[in-house]
Fold:
Amino acid sequence: MSKQILSCVRLVSFPYLHASSMPGCFGMSLRYGGLFLLCWGCFWQGVERAVHAQDMPVGAEVARGNAPEDKAAGLSIESSPTSALEQTTADVREHVKKHGIMQTRLQQLQNSLQQTEVDWVRIRREQSRQMSMQLAALEASAFLGSLATDMNDEIRAARNDRNNVNFNAAQAGQQLREVVLAKAQSDLNVLSRNEELRQLDAVTRSVVNRRINTIQEMLDLHQKWLQWQVDYAGFLLRYWPHTDPERRFSEEEIRGRLQVLLQASESDYAAMIACSLLYERLGNLDEAWTWLERAAQGPMYFESTVLHLRLQLLSAMKKHREAKILNARIAKLESLSPCDRWIKARWLAGENNWGSAESEWKNLTDEKDFRIPAHRTLSLLHLRRGDASSSAREKAFKEASTALDLTPDPDWFSYFVIANACAAMQRTDDAIAYLKKADELADEENKALCQKLSEAIDQQKYLVWDATRRCVPAP
Structure:
């Protein structure tokens, strides 16, 4: 139908466009009639479009108008922790490539700066030579001008002296012409030197501008390099949730992440730290130490995290003397990195230094990406000791409730923590309800923990979480 309307439009538009050339009322009537038909055709074409859009399948409408939104929604629905980790490793590779590009550009700028230095020296030498030649040309021009004036005066005087029989007018005139010609050539040489110096001044300005632009680009590149370092160090924060900071992952989840991390770039030192943390989580301390030593070869901005992780490994290896010495060194750093503070808090809790550990984790509740895990960990920390007081149990319940309220999409661990806190408060019905939700979302390994908590609830007890998943019922 649309083709028919277009044909109609063509038919009515032709006489309309040419009606002005027709005489009298016939031309006017044809113009208005053509305009009417043209509007009528456009109206029916709009009606057809509306009907066609109404009859269009939903999928076709989505494909035409809503593809970006649905595509983004699909990514968010189908995305998994492993795919997010793969994306992070890919981003690190791209980031490392930028480092190579910046290094290449820096070398080019350094070469350009050296070349401008060479050009500058060469131009200054040429300017000095041209100025010397200009000075010599000016002196020669002035001398020849004075000589020509003196010779002209002598010739005029000799012509007026009739007693000077030895005067040869032709020879004197020839000598004067030679001097005048030499004077003209000397003046031309002066003009040539002036032009050479003018061109050298232009070249000098060009070299100076090129040098200034090169230096400015080097300064801009330096700022990009500083930002590159900040962004590179920030990749550790993206890896951090995958290092199982709360000791909540099953072995299958850990090995799945390790499989991705082991394929990371050789320059991905943040991934090496993540590997060390995950191997420590599995209890493979030797492998964790190997990856830690590899990470220690990285940039200085990972040094503090490496030292904190070394402290944790030394403590796990029962090397308490070395750990004590290293802790004294770490205390001087006063690191504000949330990752470092989390590792330090976990080490303090392992040393039964409950107050300091609580202080560190409380500070982390002010960090956006650490707030929810910190509240959950504080809940478990308050119940860490089997003889937890009633106030400690109330704090544990408050922290667990806060974490659950802040979590937009609670998983099994969120429900597990609040169930354990409810069990500590003797709120058995709530504990069972939350535990049921946790069990529904947990995998097989974590279902075993849910079963252990269920048994503790049956005994009017709760679990003591020691951060190694060796949970035991409270006495």
Remarks:
- Residues 1-79 have pLDDT under 50 and may be disordered.
